[in-house]
Design brief:
Oligomer: single chain
Largest sheet: 7 strands, parallel
Number of strands: 20
Distance between the termini: 62 Å
Strand content: 15-25%
Strand order of the largest sheet: 10-9-6-11-12-13-14
Length: 627
């Protein structure tokens, strides 16, 4: 029997130690604390008692069918859970709360789906993997969180013990907010510093006049200043008098990020002062009106999640209605924007627009769903799949291409990084190797799948083997960021030293230049990559790409688990990787190059290629003028 705790905190420690004392096999998935220091402290106390995280990382083999529960969910386990919680006939009766027509229940279904699949991805999917590995064992999952009642049924031999003690913390927070709200009524203190954080020093009356908003996800930079990948400038027009100019468009932030530039029109919508007393009673009334829909434990859980989402929805509605002139809201990261916020825009008759961020999301079933009015997709093929999918609620689909791929054309032979230029002068082929980041802490690595330290070590070992077997080739390893290496230096020190000793391999450390990864790939003869949007962007320009489709304990992670094409470019072991690399680098008549051309025409085709940003901005300006 294995006892697995979901989230461990300081107060759980005595219970876990007692179970271990009685010789039970005890594991945990996550450590919950306010700082890394406290997390490390808990992890070390558990380790001293030989209590470790669930060691998925060290299993010999994980099947793609098990892993798929955490990504693509081909059997739609999460969706089945969704239906069980709120049957279709009941869902129609919740529509009125969200000002939705009863014929459009799909919007609420997707609202629930987001929550259910996050639980499956982080908890029940990993339990499903462990269950498949130890099908003869009885697994007991222990949690003190209400949300764990929403775990999908991914296995038969998992028994759940859930005591939702966190509900008391939740109620305490509500009571505290109500008292603070009452206190603020009787005080007239002008908190200038707080207003600056919310409105970035701008006058709210001026911000209310804006007609177009850019709804940002974690700021306007992808990455951090020290690990910059690119600025999110897709929707910024260079015309000073345009509604879409960087300093004219209203930025609505839902991630509690402070404005990076004082000249931006920036509003932190979650920090705008609202009446918690009013919303408490609105939510209470909604709960009372719909409580007749509770007919079983499952429908009770469905009722709880929808009332909780309703509470978030009415708060967003209250904030958004302040911006009476707002006509269009442009979503930064399509599938990650809160559905409650999107529904609040819809309630206030504000049209929503988004662009497909990652082509691979086309193939996802339970995850990466979207509600939006106008959607710019990465290809005609993607548009067709999305149009037929029950996981998208889109009124107007417009195929434009993968918007960042234009940078590949821009940098091809024009902006060549110095290291590449020198290598090419010496007659070498250029291979860019795109890797995953890794967890910063050992206890996070244990439960990680494709990003664990062992997976990373295997990837780097293969990089060295490639450098030894591919003659006349210069290899550049590139990550999204290198912050994880600072925390894991002792673990990876030896292999990084070996990398430094290789004459034809280098670790890219330039994170000051925006789109530097694109400069590398644009001038590469071959890109080998883990799953990333840059791979699809390269293929759309017929830059040769091979997918690193395995780890130290998994094979076909992308082709089978994600249900993703093109499978012929997948490599499920090192021998296959080496063979296909040699073919693409040194065989001018390689059949793989013909396959890349075929894939490009089938999966990435759009009628008019290139100039994607200007096409989107032009269409947006027409939409603004016609609204």
């Amino acid at each position: 029997m294995h006892i697995i705790f979901g989230h461990v905190t300081f107060w759980n420690l005595p219970i876990i130690k007692i179970l271990k004392y009685f010789k039970f096999d005890v594991y945990y998935l996550y450590i919950e604390a306010k700082s890394d220091f406290k997390k490390n402290e808990i992890a070390m106390k558990l380790k001293k008692n030989n209590i470790l995280p669930l060691p998925i990382e060290f299993e010999k083999e994980i099947l793609p069918t098990s892993y798929s529960m955490c990504v693509n969910d081909p059997d739609e386990i999460a969706y089945k859970k969704n239906i069980k919680l709120v049957p279709e006939k009941d869902l129609k009766k919740y529509c009125n709360l969200f000002s939705i027509n009863e014929k459009k229940t799909k919007k609420l279904r997707l609202l629930i789906q987001d929550f259910i699949f996050i639980q499956q991805k982080t908890i029940s999917g990993k339990l499903g993997i462990w269950s498949a590995l130890y099908s003869e064992k009885k697994l007991i999952y222990v949690s003190f969180k209400l949300k764990c009642f929403y775990n999908s049924d991914t296995s038969q031999n998992v028994f759940k013990i859930i005591i939702p003690l966190d509900i008391f913390n939740y109620l305490t927070k509500i009571i505290k907010k109500i008292f603070l709200n009452l206190f603020s009524i009787f005080t007239s203190k002008n908190n200038k510093e707080q207003k600056n954080k919310i409105f970035s020093g701008k006058n709210l009356d001026e911000l209310k006049k804006k007609t177009v908003a850019f709804v940002t996800h974690k700021g306007i930079l992808y990455g951090q200043k020290e690990n910059l990948l690119f600025e999110k400038s897709l929707y910024y027009s260079n015309k000073v008098n345009s509604y879409l100019h960087k300093y004219s468009i209203l930025h609505l932030d839902y991630s509690n990020y402070i404005s990076p530039d004082q000249n931006l029109c920036w509003v932190c919508i979650n920090k705008i002062k609202i009446s918690y007393i009013k919303f408490f009673f609105q939510t209470l009334l909604a709960g009372i009106k719909t409580c007749y829909l509770i007919k079983s434990w499952s429908t009770f859980l469905g009722w709880v999640i929808l009332i909780q989402q309703y509470s978030a929805y009415i708060k967003y509605c209250e904030v958004i209605k302040k911006f009476k002139n707002l006509k269009i809201a442009i979503l930064d990261y399509d599938v990650l924007c809160p559905k409650t916020l999107i529904l609040a825009f819809e309630k206030n008759k504000i049209k929503t627009v988004a662009t497909q961020e990652r082509y691979v999301h086309t193939f996802f079933k339970s995850y990466a769903n979207l509600i939006v009015d106008t959607y710019y997709t990465s290809s005609e093929y993607a548009a067709d799949v999305i149009n037929k999918s029950k996981y998208y609620d889109v009124k107007n689909i417009i195929p434009v291409g993968q918007y960042r791929s234009d940078y590949l054309s821009l940098y091809k032979k024009k902006t060549i990084p110095e290291k590449i230029s020198k290598a090419k002068e010496n007659g070498k082929k250029i291979l860019v190797l795109l890797g995953n980041h890794s967890p910063k802490h050992w206890y996070e690595s244990y439960t990680s799948l494709t990003t664990s330290w062992s997976s990373q070590m295997s990837f780097l070992e293969d990089a060295i083997r490639l450098s030894q077997n591919l003659k006349n080739t210069y290899i550049i390893i590139r990550y999204k960021g290198l912050d994880w290496t600072l925390k894991t230096d002792s673990y990876f020190k030896s292999i990084f030293n070996r990398l430094n000793d290789c004459e034809n391999i280098v670790l890219s450390k330039n994170y000051k230049e925006s789109f530097y990864s694109y400069k590398l790939c644009a001038n590469a003869d071959l890109v080998i990559t883990v799953p990333t949007s840059l791979a699809d962007e390269c293929l759309s320009h017929e830059i040769p790409v091979l997918f690193y489709d395995y780890t130290h304990n998994m094979k076909k992670t992308l082709s089978e688990a994600w249900g993703y094409s093109p499978s012929v470019l997948m490599c499920s072991n090192f021998e296959e990787l080496l063979e296909k690399s040699q073919s693409l680098l040194f065989n001018s008549s390689s059949k793989l190059k013909e396959e890349i051309s075929r894939i490009n025409k089938k999966f990435y085709y759009v009628k008019e290629k290139g100039n994607i940003k200007n096409k989107i901005i032009g269409q947006l300006e027409n939409l603004i003028n016609s609204t």
